[in-house]
Design a protein that fits this description.
- This protein is α+β, with helices and mostly antiparallel strands.
- The chain has two domains: about 1-85; about 105-330, 2-Layer Sandwich (BirA Bifunctional Protein, domain 2).
- The chain is about 40% helix and about 25% strand.
- A hairpin with a 2-residue loop joins strand 7 and strand 8 (about 255-265).
- Helix 1 runs parallel beside helix 4 (about 55-85) and helix 5 (about 105-120) packs across helix 10 (about 305-310).
- The longest helix has about 30 residues, at about 55-85.
- The protein is rod-shaped.
- The termini are far apart.
Length: about 325
């Protein structure tokens, strides 16, 4: 019996050392430690061992069992460790390049616009996106019955202190808030979101961005307005860009004009409507206690999406808001 145990331990440990994968190790466990394994198969022979030899044989049987179980656990750990190691790392090879984020094309365009006008002496101003009728209409010389106030063209939200509130339809509201708190000379631009209930298509969206410009001082004329827009066009679209103004009407400017800029699109120079402008209407200045006999000013509003789409060749405004990384990574 002792000889059988010695032979069993020696053979089992040799085969255990040759088990090179989890499947072979499991087969070894079943063969030697399983309920029908070789170790269990020796136990019935204990009844044939003499009374005097049974203590020594029983002790040796337990030692063999402990040796096989310990060897199995050790080999199991070795194989698991080898599987976790994986292929070695060659530290001399270039590292993996991770993707990096970038500014959204609209954010970059706003930064560029602010930088250009900043070099011309304009400071930035801001105002709330939820406005009252005074700042969005009345102070901008838009009377009570004007079609621009129609609910079909605005996002009205409720009533506060006797006045309806709405999502602002233009950044011109910042003109009023600035002149309420600052007296001329004033030279500011305001970039921000505006809202109109337009049907979404390639060139319209219910939320978009405008840059509003305002300059109020003594002796300001249309020449100053056109020069400012001309300098912006040259700085942003290139030295061959041009500006032209077409007569138009806005309640808050007089005279008023539509602004076209000549820019290169797909290799060809084209005229593109980019916004509106004009001299600040005297009624607007009076609404904020600025004497129109002493001060004059100009204002302009440019569509930021239009500027970005023309510069980067984007043909559908909706792409700017779909957050498709494949599209945004192009800019």
């Amino acid at each position: 019996m002792l000889a059988d145990l010695e032979e069993l331990q020696s053979t089992a440990l040799e085969e255990l050392a040759r088990a090179s994968d989890p499947e072979a190790l499991e087969a070894w466990r079943i063969a030697y430690l399983g309920s029908k394994g070789r170790l269990k198969g020796l136990m019935p022979k204990l009844k044939d061992v003499s009374r005097e030899d049974k203590p020594a044989v029983g002790k040796r049987l337990n030692e063999v069992k402990v040796a096989l179980e310990s060897g199995f656990e050790s080999r199991q750990g070795e194989l698991a460790g080898a599987a976790d190691d994986g292929p070695g790392i060659d530290v001399t090879q270039p590292g993996t390049t991770l993707p990096s984020g970038r500014r959204h094309v609209l954010g970059r365009t706003i930064d560029e616009i602010v930088d250009i006008f900043g070099r011309m002496g304009f400071t930035t101003a801001s105002g709330p996106e939820v406005e009252d009728e005074w700042h969005n209409f009345t102070a901008l010389n838009i009377p009570a019955g004007h079609p621009a106030r129609d609910p079909i063209d605005n996002f009205y939200m409720g009533e506060q202190e006797g006045s309806r509130t709405l999502l602002r339809t233009q950044t011109s509201t910042v003109q009023i808030r600035t002149l309420e708190n600052e007296k001329p000379p004033v030279r500011i631009i305001a970039c921000g979101r505006v809202y109109r209930p337009d049907t979404h298509d390639a060139t319209h969206y219910s939320m978009f961005h405008q840059v509003e410009g305002l300059c109020v001082d003594r002796g300001i004329t249309m020449v100053d307005l056109k020069t400012t827009l001309f300098q912006f066009a040259r700085a942003y679209f290139g030295p061959e860009a041009e500006v032209r103004m077409r007569p138009s009407f806005f309640p808050f400017t007089e005279p008023s004009a539509e602004v076209d800029m000549k820019m290169k699109i797909k290799g060809e120079w084209q005229w593109v409507e980019i916004g509106g402008c004009g001299m600040v209407d005297p009624n607007v200045l009076q609404a904020v206690d600025v004497d129109p006999e002493e001060y004059t000013g100009f204002a302009f509003g440019l569509g930021i999406e239009r500027i970005a789409m023309r510069k980067y060749g984007i043909s559908d405004i909706r792409w700017l808001y779909e957050n498709d990384v494949r599209f945004l990574d192009q800019f």
